[in-house]
Amino acid sequence: TLTLLFLQEHGLDFQRLLDASAYKESFRQDMIRWGEEKRRADPGFFCRAAVEGALHPVWVVSDTRRLSDVEWFRDVYGDVVQTVRVVATEETRKRRNWVFVTGVDDAESECGLDQGVAFDWVITNDGDELALDEQLETLLQSLHRSL
């Protein structure tokens, strides 16, 4: 949601902001600053944008970045909210071409949920497709039971 709203306000190329290219990296810090300004003015700004017009019984809101996002969803939707954290080791992330950037990867926009959230589910995605499929199947079965 942040990326889409940022590109609309700044007239940027949506497809190029979705990948891990230098194009996205050149705007990343500006996007983070812009997002912080929006959140300071209205902590629910991006959360409301994410659910606007949603009509399905189950929504997957990916890429929440801050405790205030999780709290907003829990405050608005209560016990039906299920939080899922996807983790990978630093070694796996580096194999996927991730490179730590000081001032970006240690900012709240990247690690704001590393503490203070009791996730309902933690999914490990280190490249073992069978293990990932098993974890996702367990999650899906639980969600189906709660409908």
TrEMBL record:
The keyword Lipoprotein does not apply. Keywords: ATP-binding, Cholesterol biosynthesis, Cholesterol metabolism, Cytoplasm, Kinase, Lipid biosynthesis, Lipid metabolism, Nucleotide-binding, Steroid biosynthesis, Steroid metabolism, Sterol biosynthesis, Sterol metabolism, Transferase. One of its GO terms (molecular function) is ATP binding. Its main location: cytoplasm. It is found in: Cytoplasm, Cytosol. It holds the Pfam family P-mevalo_kinase. Pathway: Isoprenoid biosynthesis; isopentenyl diphosphate biosynthesis via mevalonate pathway; isopentenyl diphosphate from (R)-mevalonate: step 2/3. It comes from the Eukaryota. GO terms for cellular component: cytosol. InterPro entries: P-loop_NTPase, Pmev_kin_anim. Its EC number is 2.7.4.2. GO terms for biological process: cholesterol biosynthetic process; isopentenyl diphosphate biosynthetic process, mevalonate pathway. Gene3D superfamilies: P-loop containing nucleotide triphosphate hydrolases (3.40.50.300). NCBIfam families: Pmev_kin_anim. This is Phosphomevalonate kinase. The gene is Pmvk.
